[in-house]
Amino acid sequence: MSWIDNVLPPKIRSFLNKRETPENLWVKDPESGEMVFYRDLEANQWVVPGSGHHMKIKANDRLAAFLDDSKYDLVPLPTVPTDPLKFRDQKRYTDRLRDMRVKTGMEDAVLVATGKLYQQPVTVAVQDFDFMAGSLGMAAGSAVITGLEKAADTKTPFILFASSGGARMQEGILSLMQMPRTTVAVLRLRDAGLPFIVVFTNPTTGGVTASYAMLGDVHIAEPGALICFAGPRVIEQTIREKLPKGFQRSEYLYEHGMVDMVVHRHNLRSTIGSLIAMFTGAASPAGLSEAPPKQPLPQVANDDDLDGSVAQAASE
Q: What does pTM read for this prediction?
C-alpha cells in the first residue's frame, strides 16, 4: 500500500480509484427481453437481430444509414422565438429546451438534409423522438416547411421520417398552427409535381398524424409502429370497449388500407429508391434488380402503457 492511500480520506481515495464503466453496454429488447450488445445493435440499424423489433434511431444515424455513402448536407433552418408564451410547469420551457439540446446535440426535433439515394438527389427530413418526444412546435414545423420548400426549389423528391408524440403543449395555439402551415407547404410540393414519401416510425401520433404525415403520395410504415391521432388507452376509456390486439399498429393499418406498405428498416433504401425511380421516370437504379432479403417482423407490442410513456417523454 502506498503512502497516498494512508494520507487521503476514504471518500477521495474511492473517487480516485473509481473505474469508468461504459453505459448502455447491453440493451434489453422490450419485446423478448433479450440482452443485445450495444455495438451489434448499432451496426444493425437499431433492429434487434433475434426478434426484429425496431428500436428508436437517432436522426443523424437515420440519415447516415439511408443516404448514399452516409453523406449528406444539413439544410440551415430558420430561427424561431424560443419561449413565446413564457410557459412553465414543473420547470421552465427554456430549461427543457436547453436540457434537450445538451442531451441530443440538436436545436430541435427535426433535421433536414440533402443527399443522394442510389445517385438520385433527394431532400430528407427526420424527426427525432429523443427531443421532447419529437413534438411539433414552431421550430419543428418551420423545419418541415423548409424541407418541403427546399425540395420544391431544387426539384427533388421529399422523404419524411415521422416520429412524434403530437403537438408541443408548451407552445399552445402556436404549435397547432403548424398543422395548416405544413399542409400549405405540402400543396406547393404537389403543385411542383414532385413525390412526397412518408415513412411512419414508432410512434407517430397526434397533430403530426393529423397534418403533413398523412399527406404523402406513398405512406410506408416500419414494422410494429404505432400510428394514430389519439392513443389506444384514450380510445378505450372513451368508448368503454376493449380494442383489438395490434390496433393502430403498422400491420393492422396496412390490412385496413391506412398505409400502403410495411417495410423493414433494412429494406427502406431499396424500396424508396424504386418508388422514386417510378415517380420520376428515371431508370431503375443499379442494385435494385434483386429482391431484398426477407427480414423477421417484430411481435405486436403491448399498448397498455403506451399513452403514458409518450406523455412522459414529451414532458422530460
A: 0.83
